[in-house]
Design a protein that fits this description.
alpha+beta; 3 helices; globular
Length: 133
């Protein structure tokens, strides 16, 4: 009986810790594109844009990565699209870059790095740039 109570307590703690972060594939409602732009040196970014549906596609497939994984696995290109999305936890602010990377600001104010290796269908490449294999 005590083992069952302990298991239920551990499960509740795990679920509470995961409640705020949308997991890959989780539904995000009201995905909106607010702006697009480029960092300095992003002269080839004029044609990079995403629709709300494309941003939703990306956000549903992107996984959480750390700085090292991001640097080693993806090009952080200067082209970006910014917007918001809503989950059961609240409003998320996001920035998706042409190289398949993203930064998400959580409803609680934290920041997550995300990357998607299966999003070529929605990430048109700016002229002369390519993602790392």
């Amino acid at each position: 009986m005590q083992a069952l109570k302990f298991s239920m307590s551990v499960a509740a703690l795990i679920l509470a810790g995961c409640a705020s972060a949308p997991q890959p594939g989780a539904a995000l409602d009201e995905v909106r594109v607010d702006s697009r732009g480029a960092d300095p040196g992003g002269g080839a970014c004029g044609d990079f844009t995403l629709t709300a549906a494309q941003a939703r596609y990306f956000l549903a497939r992107a996984v959480v990565v750390d700085d090292r994984q991001l640097r080693e696995g993806w090009n952080v290109l200067p082209c970006y699209v910014r917007g918001t999305a809503r989950s059961s936890a609240g409003v998320w602010r996001w920035q998706i870059r042409a190289g398949g990377t993203a930064t998400l600001e959580t409803p609680s104010g934290g920041t997550e790095l995300r990357a998607c290796s299966d999003c070529d269908a929605v990430l048109p490449q700016p002229s002369g740039k390519s993602r790392k294999p």
